[in-house]
Amino acid sequence: MYDYVKDKVFLKESYSICADIVNQLVQNLKSYGIQSRMSVVGSKKRGLVTQNEKEPIDYDFNLWIESAENINIVNNPRELKQAIIAAFNEVLEWNDWKTCDDSTSAITTKQRILKKGNKTPFSIDVCIVRKDGWENWYRLVHKKVGNLYCDQYYWQQGPTTRDLNKKEECLKANYWIRVRDVYLKKKNLYLSRQDMDNHPSYNCYIEAVNEVYTQVRRENGY
Predict the structure, then answer these.
(1) Taking CA 203 as the corner, what is the angle to CA 197 and CA 205, rounded to the nearest 5 degrees?
(2) Percentage of residues in the chain with pLDDT exceeding 90?
(3) HSE on the CB side for 175, CA within 13 Å?
(4) 140: which strand partners?
């Protein structure tokens, strides 16, 4: 079962290492003709980092793809992901990290530990995402079928982020404890269903904010 990580020193130091690696990826992708930006998934930015029992911690980042010179982003997700993996492995090698793994809904690094202090292993999950012109967002999914040439790569639409910032501002003063509770329940619900590939942390966070915001509006009669 998931619970919140309470060691703030460990979180600060391990996250700083991971964020630096992902920022290097953004810069390196420019040499591939790919323009992107990184955002940390809501869990770290808002103090919602979770850990499943004593398992390693994953830091989730969204890599927002804005343009690519030589790749049709919408129609060629396979080529896009392979280029990003190549760029990421270069960055990991520069930093003496092992090469990454191509998972269903992310690119995942091998585990690391801090040289001092808390020895909880941690790793990076990079989810490749994009937006369209109607405020919809999509994540790149690699569905593996056991044959590399038959694997499917496609863009899966995520839950609505419409007015997400406004909803966060509305909730953070008096209702954030409810967001924390709902977020944790959703993480554990999808874990119990073995359905985390279809419901990564970002999806759980958006669902939690939207759900609590709707409840608060109903309770306050607007």
Answers:
(1) 130
(2) 74
(3) 20
(4) 155
